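Exercise 7b. Backbone tokens:
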């Protein structure tokens, strides 16, 4: 453990930083003020466990023998926490004696086809109007009805005589009377139903029923009581002091500070001795064992540092902390200096605005 910086070490570091090596004691006499500023960086990863049981099912005859079993209450079943608490995992158990394969309740693995409502066929449109005769005169003898229409005279008009380019009518069987495109139908045949108005149901292929999904068509389901144990990491952190000192100081101390570090791995581990007494309460409360916590890893780092003000340099605060090669100093503008600079900047901006307004 690195020794905490003494007041003499701190003042001497500031004196050296300001070009007055060996004059640390002089700074003290001149009224330098030292505020201890211990830094703490704590990170905790808890492995938190949740347990739940639920009814489980699989289609058909299902083999659960490769799953681990538990007996009685799931909460009493021992499950090792993961070696690494940052790992997330779920273990699925089967309650011993709960597995049974029973009839599904469907019709032997089949269910009525919902598409055709178990009719095996679907209504279908008949073909669209024939593009050649537009359905007006598909056959000069039967008009596409298959029978001689009553209002036609038996002798027939010249138009009704067999004409060139006409073909045999499929409805009345007369030769050379029908439109060559639709052969007396007045419409193109529907390719799906051949103009019967019905087609085979594509879902059940006309069988009126389909395989029942929940049992994969077996008519059986396997049921059991499942118990699942989930282990998931939960992370938290604590950074002190609060409010945080200036960012530049924290960054510099984070990079080059000689932090002392300890890793704890269980809730009962004692806290390290070097922690600042002012931090103990917050650390203890951050490390309280959580509900469901089965494992943890705590990384604690701390750095004894100080903020020093010197009466003859009111524009700076000197942050002193132990580095790898001895005390390090970082001078940061004091609040007084920052406010003055801000005031000067505001004044300049105001002046520029005035000049711009006058020009
Ligand atoms: Zn036609
Ligand atoms: Zn005809
Ligand atoms: Zn059709
Ligand atoms: Zn169907
Ligand atoms: Zn079924």
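Sequence design result:
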């Amino acid at each position: 453990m690195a020794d905490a910086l003494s007041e003499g070490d701190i003042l001497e570091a500031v004196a050296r930083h300001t070009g007055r090596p060996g004059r640390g004691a002089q700074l003290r006499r001149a009224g330098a003020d030292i505020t201890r500023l211990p830094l703490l960086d704590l990170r905790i990863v808890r492995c938190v466990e949740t347990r739940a049981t639920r009814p489980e099912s699989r289609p058909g005859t299902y083999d659960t023998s490769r799953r681990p079993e538990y007996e009685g209450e799931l909460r009493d079943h021992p499950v090792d926490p993961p070696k690494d608490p940052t790992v997330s995992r779920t273990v699925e158990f089967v309650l011993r004696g709960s597995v049974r394969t029973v009839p599904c309740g469907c019709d032997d693995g089949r269910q009525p086809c919902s598409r055709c409502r178990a009719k095996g066929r679907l209504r279908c449109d008949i073909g669209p109007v024939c593009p050649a005769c537009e359905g007006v005169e598909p056959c000069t003898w039967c008009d596409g009805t298959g029978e001689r229409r009553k209002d036609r005279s038996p002798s027939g008009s010249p138009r009704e005589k067999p004409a060139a380019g006409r073909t045999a009518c499929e409805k009345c069987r007369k030769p050379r009377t029908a439109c060559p495109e639709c052969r007396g139908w007045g419409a193109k045949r529907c390719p799906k139903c051949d103009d019967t108005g019905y087609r085979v149901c594509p879902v059940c292929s006309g069988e009126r029923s389909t395989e029942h999904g929940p049992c994969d068509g077996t008519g059986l389901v396997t049921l059991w009581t499942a118990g699942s144990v989930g282990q998931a990491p939960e992370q938290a952190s604590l950074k002190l002091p609060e409010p945080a000192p200036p960012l530049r100081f924290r960054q510099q101390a984070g990079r080059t500070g000689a932090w002392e570090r300890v890793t704890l791995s269980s809730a009962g581990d004692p806290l390290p001795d070097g922690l600042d007494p002012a931090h103990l309460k917050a650390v203890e409360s951050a490390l309280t064992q959580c509900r469901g916590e089965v494992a943890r890893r705590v990384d604690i780092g701390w750095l004894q540092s100080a903020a020093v003000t010197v009466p003859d340099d009111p524009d700076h605060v000197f942050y002193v902390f132990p580095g790898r090669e001895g005390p390090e100093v970082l001078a940061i503008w004091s609040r007084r200096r920052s406010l003055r600079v801000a005031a000067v900047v505001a004044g300049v901006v105001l002046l520029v605005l005035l000049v711009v307004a006058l020009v």
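Instructor comment: The mean pLDDT is 90. The pocket of zinc ion (ligand 2) is lined by residues 139, 141-142, 169, 171-172, 174, 177-178, 184 (CB under 6 Å).
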